[in-house]
Amino acid sequence: MLSNHIKTLLTLVLFAAVAGCSSFSQRELEKKWFSTGEEKLLAEVKAHGIDQTISSLQLRLKRKAALEEKKALMRHAWFLYSNNRTNKNAALAAAQAVYLVIDVLDNKDEVYQLSELGYKITLSAGAGKDSEASYYNALFLGFIVRQKGLMALGRLKDVVSMLEVAKKKPELDFGGPMRVQGMLFLKAPPWPRGLGDLDKALEALEAAFDKSPRFPQNTMFLAEALIEDEEFDKAGKLLKKASAELKPEVWGEDYCRIWKEYINNLKKKMK
User: Fold this and answer.
1) How far is CA 214 from the centre of its chain?
2) What does the pLDDT average to over 193-198?
């Protein structure tokens, strides 16, 4: 299973068919996902202040957390944001929390619903100007376009522009802006039909790898680009490295399962 935010963008540029999406109101969405009361957080805010409470929550927003724990943290983050909508840090924490849940969900309707919510949160956090808000905005927008298919392909330019802003903070998500941009160049149709460019893909993915060489996605995506460039020896070594980096105690069971399957599929392409 391909990591969802990358699969989103690949589906977008490969002109996926229109997928049906459930209609829902903002109120219905909030009731479904955030009906659990988090009033105890108000006491924490009163005792320690909103910024310290948000910082404490962000320290627990880790990829290795189990899905149910991520959902609980997402509820906490949403509660803090919904009570402090003008607080940029609250918005960014909520966006990150929503993304970490979406990235390992399989249910397409749930992914779409939460992506709509996350996209709106990033707008209030300064997407288009703030690098972190722009990065999550691009990811959420990609999820949304994946569900709407051909009807929303025109918004690809928004994904590209948001990633350019995000690249001003290249350390985000272990080199995420370059990683996502690199895969976009790798999988898109080449000019004049699309943005595809193997040289640009290699450049972006090498930059992501140099930024965070121990992050498995950076390693295996660079290997994929090298496979396309027929550099099989280099790709094989990177895939071996990526496999050795799949440590559940670091990245969590869900991500390790997803990445292991992806690496195995790349190995099949080399045979």
Assistant:
1) 18
2) 84
pLDDT band at 58 (very low <50, low <70, confident <90, very high): confident
Query: Where is the domain boundary, 164, 179, 211?
Result: 164
- φ, ψ at 196 (rounded to 5°): -55, 135
Boundary of a domain, candidates 145, 164, 183: 164
pLDDT band of 177, cuts 50, 70, 90: very high
In whole angstroms, give the CA distance from residue 16 to residue 147: 9
CATH of the domain at 210: 1.25.40.10
Residues 130 and 1 grouped into a single domain: yes
Exposure string (b/e) for 231-267, b if CB count within 10 Å is 16 or more?
A: eeeebbebbebbbebbeeeebbebbbebbbebbeebb
CA 115 – CA 182 distance, rounded (Å): 22
Q: Which residue has the higher pLDDT, 29 or 224?
A: 224
Q: CB 215: neighbour CB atoms within 10 A?
A: 22
Domain that holds residue 66: 1-164
Residues 218 and 116 in one domain: no
Report the pLDDT value the prediction gives residue 54, as an integer from 0 to 100. Answer: 86
Q: What is the model's pLDDT at position 102?
A: 94
Q: What is the pLDDT of residue 30?
A: 60
Statement to judge: residues 13 and 134 lie in one domain:
yes
User: For the chain, how many structural domains are there in total?
Assistant: 2
Neighbour count for residue 89 (Cβ, 10 Å): 18
Cα torsion angle, 24, 77, 90, 43, sign: positive
Please state which of the ranges 3-7, 131-135, 149-153, 219-223 shows the lowest mean pLDDT: 3-7
Are 222 and 159 contained in the same domain?
A: no
